Amino acid sequence: MVAAIAVVVAPILTGQSLWHRDLVLLTFPLKRVLRERLLAGQLGLWNPLMGLGRPLLGMVQPAALYPLDVLMLLPVPLGLNLFLAAHLFILAFGARAWARRIGASDDGAALSGLVIALSGYVVAMLDGNGAYMVGAAWVPWALAFAADARDATGWARASVIARLGLALAATVIAGDPQATHLSLGLCALQALGRGDRRAIGRSLALLAAGAALAGLIAAAQLVPALEAARLGRPGGVDPDDAAHFALHPARLLELAWARPFGEPLDFAHWWHRALDRPGEEIAYPSLFGSLYLGLATPLLALAALTRRRRELRLLGLCAVVLAVIAVGRHAPLWDPFFRWVPGVGLFRYPEKYVFPLSLCLAALAGCGLDAALAAPRRAALVGAGAVALLGLGALAAARSGAPIVAWLSHGASGVDVTAAAAQLARQGRVALALGVACLAPVALVAAGWLAPSRLPRLLVAIVAVDLALAAFHLLDWVPGPRLRERSPIVDDLRAEAGQTIAPIRLYRSPETLLTLPGGDPIAQTRGPLVPDVGMEDGVNHVEAYDYFHTDGESALWAAFSGRLPTLMRITATRFALLPDRGDGDPPPGLARVMSYPGLGASLMEVEGDAPRVYLAQHTIPVGGLADGARAIAAPGFRPGVDAVVEGEARETDGACALDRFSPEAVDLHCDAAAPGWAILADAPAPGWRARVDGREAPIAVANLALRAIPVPAGRSTVELRYRPPYFAAALLASGLGLALAAALEAMARRRRAMAS
């Protein structure tokens, strides 16, 4: 198990790096920002480099309090990649421990760990969305500790609570609350399959106690996260948005058949993208590139169900339900599941339920290995039938591949039917060969030509080779130094901006597609400064690539739709990277600074002032977002001079200037002829506190989404400091939770030692 995983991630040690999709667009930039904070000996609480500012701790995904972040202190990108790879081993050993608890032998448990760690979905997550994979790595550990609840008595129950609390807390602190939700759901279902009502009740009670302890341990992360969710997702997740990235039902074939729809990392030849008709409600490509679990895994999972254990059959039923949920609105279960199951409405994308589906099938496969060993003749007959079906499938793919592709892709343009049919036929032959390889040792044992004791390790080895070869097609390695390359646009921005206290703010819409000639994938991502690439180099994308958008920020963007220069002046955004217009002239209100002919874009600078801080000479008091949107969009509004404020009207003259700007500390001074409002073009999130001349002062909302601080007449100094709300109490709660978990585990160990 360890050797197979190590071989797959070995390129990290040769200087290679993962880089795909959200990993390079969001995860790596956020982690690099966090790394700089850790190297400076600071906690990462606020991030001024996304949008108008984001709660770095509250966003959860950066995992600012996660102990394994220490790996990121290694050089970039080695530390980032080792951080991700380490969680493959955490996941594998967790699945191994869980499989042992539900009855698998040592070899079967090793198979379970191998299957889930090198499953197509997990490997694709590793390369495309590291944050989700990191949190998910702790799910099987929670299941393993929850499985101990059935037989725990006396002080052993304290150990169950402590370990379960730590595992559940790790899913949150590692950056993925959805993994916590999945853990709780799977643990509860597992309890229902264990023994009589009394045993079920005991298991559920211990699960509830472990969940309560996890909440205490993770309080320092949970409290800021709940506040951020209230700000950034005040209405929860939109059901239509949540339903995106659903599996086409045909893709379930990938669970046992590697790459039937083309090469996932070669989008030009990944023809499954045409499975959903353009224009339909669900017309999204896959979130990740594979579902493959190894050819033998589904058959071994079915073999486990012959053991007639309620726990395993419940696990099989759970796998079926998860498969139906993963296809989203292609089946009738998604909408009621999303709307009525507690907690589900907080998360998006049906396809993410492929992970617990894979985990359930991996655990069943581990138990099924022992069932196959117990009845090798029956296993050989079933395997022969499966190989025969594979042969028929391979024959159908060879003879009728083109009609199959045309039918599944709905005749979509851009699909090379001939090439796709050839890929389908080729993978059919590969699946058939693998089927024969898996069947051979079982048949030899059934015939008495091979010792039964050798069968488990032979099958594990075959599965390891199968999954490792499939993983190589899913990981797109690039030389590590490429991830440290800086876009030339960053240097141009720095040269034009000169010496600035605050980060350089750039408008560059995430929806704008800019491409460089040559097709170099790294250059295509880093060169055009796709949001949020450049964050690690100090570039603040005012329109960030993330899910966090406050009502005020959304209202501000809507108020100036089509009036980009005014929006830039209000948000202190001096520069914009825009596609070149056909007439060659810059848009009104913008001046061209630099042209990038190969990119088909230009760097523009807004005409007029775009101050990060100013003293409002004229303020317009409003009572909410609707009034504010009308007032700020009025023709007479003057950015950098006027302000729409949710507070009293003040007229004054004078100026304000920045003295210091750091993520959680901003200092400025003002000279005002009369009491007025200092306007800072940053988000006014809870947790920011202001002191004016050493005295507490309120922070009001200005211009729909900015900060306003009242200042007196004359010269004044303003200090703004950030700490998430209730952060000190949350840190104390986390410390108490860790101390309680340690005490429970120590007491349980002491009692065990005394008993022995």
Topology:
Elements: H1 2-9, E1 16-17, H2 22-39, H3 78-101, H4 106-117, H5 120-128, H6 130-136, H7 139-147, H8 156-173, H9 177-192, H10 197-217, H11 219-232, H12 239-242, H13 296-304, H14 310-326, H15 334-340, H16 354-374, H17 376-408, H18 417-446, H19 455-472, E2 478-479, H20 488-497, E3 504-507, H21 521-526, E4 539-541, H22 551-559, H23 564-570, E5 575-579, E6 590-596, E7 601-606, E8 613-616, E9 618-621, H24 625-632, E10 642-645, E11 654-662, E12 665-672, E13 676-680, E14 688-692, E15 695-697, E16 700-702, E17 706-711, E18 714-722, H25 727-755
Parallel strand pairs: 3-4, 3-5, 9-10
Antiparallel strand pairs: 1-2, 5-7, 6-7, 8-13, 11-12, 12-18, 13-17, 14-15, 14-18, 16-17
